[in-house]
Design goal:
- By secondary structure, the protein is an all-beta fold.
- The chain contains 1 helix and 18 strands.
- Strand 5 and strand 6 form a beta hairpin.
- The longest helix is centred in the last third of the chain and has 5 residues.
- The radius of gyration is 17 Å and the shape is globular.
- The N and C termini lie far apart (about 40 Å).
Length: about 220
């Protein structure tokens, strides 16, 4: 399978039903298994996964995990009804999703409330963890699912982060770019330098878009 195209016109995607993702407040308890909350990014070490053993001969100790990590600013920007992401750490540019049906979404003018992101894609990094830290100290949302290639819409949750702390996710955690609650936000991004990426095209695989709420009053109580 070829890697997904991340920059495109929203209207190139079909109209599909929406699967509403539960919005959960990010706490030490709720993010357990996915990662952890981070108070101070300075000196925070992300996990780097050792190169997998190919046969019966083991990987030499002290090798296979020396790629290190990269760091940069991740920017989330709404343009009309379309949410764009830019990740300077890996020179990535993305259409993250839309606030309304992509056949109706405009990148020129806002035609619908920016109270949700209709998500078309998720990915995970097998080579290392990833840290998202809010530079503007404002709330943000991150969709996530636990490891395993048997991803399904009902396995996805969205974490509401209040902007006072960052969120770190372990290697193998399904996620997408960071969703700003306001029109534009900046985040510190730190992740494995190898940047291996495994993708799932949600719309194509499951016939739905994942509707991730961006409103605090949509938070579900666990």
């Amino acid at each position: 399978m070829s890697a997904p195209e991340y920059i495109f016109e929203a209207s190139s995607k079909p109209s599909l039903p929406w699967h509403v993702v539960p919005l959960i407040r990010a706490t030490e308890s709720s993010v357990k298994g996915y990662g952890c909350l981070v108070d101070d990014p300075d000196g925070f070490e992300i996990e780097i996964t050792r190169w997998p053993q190919q046969g019966w001969r083991p990987i030499d100790e002290g090798t296979g995990d020396e790629g290190g990590w990269v760091e940069g600013t991740f920017k989330g920007d709404w343009k009309g009804d379309v949410l764009y992401g830019e990740n300077e750490a890996v020179n990535g540019h993305y259409v993250l999703g839309w606030s309304t049906d992509p056949q109706q979404a405009s990148a020129e003018a806002q035609t619908a409330p920016r109270d949700q992101v209709l998500l078309w894609h998720m990915n995970y990094h097998p080579d290392g963890g990833q840290l998202f830290y809010p530079l503007d100290r404002k709330p943000f949302v991150i969709p996530a699912a636990l490891p395993g290639d048997n991803l399904a819409p009902d396995k996805v949750v969205a974490f509401w982060c209040d902007g006072t702390r960052g969120l770190y996710i372990h290697p193998g955690i399904w996620h997408e770019g960071i969703f700003p609650v306001e029109d534009s936000q900046r985040f510190l991004d730190r992740q494995g330098a190898v940047h291996a990426r495994v993708s799932a095209n949600i719309g194509r695989e499951f016939g739905v878009y994942l509707a991730c709420p961006l409103r605090q009053d949509r938070i579900k109580t666990l």
